[in-house]
Amino acid sequence: MAEISRLEHRHPEMSPGWTRELVGIWRRFVRSPYHRLWEERDDSCGVWECCGDPHEARVLLEAVAHRMTSRRAREFRALLRTLDDLY
Description:
mainly alpha; flat
């Protein structure tokens, strides 16, 4: 968590809590029994926490992992694999 916090403060395209939001979007999506029926909607509100694109969130989470140290990236990817297995 400390490394993620440092990354979020160091990179201008990130903000505090950004990674947690992305993980939440991906987690809700893969845990939903209807996730295979998900499709992009034109009427989304544009708020990540509500209508964020889960596939884009997953891509961004991989980008976060690439910026981490090797050890922490392995730990983070293990969490992501657990969620990916639900998909």
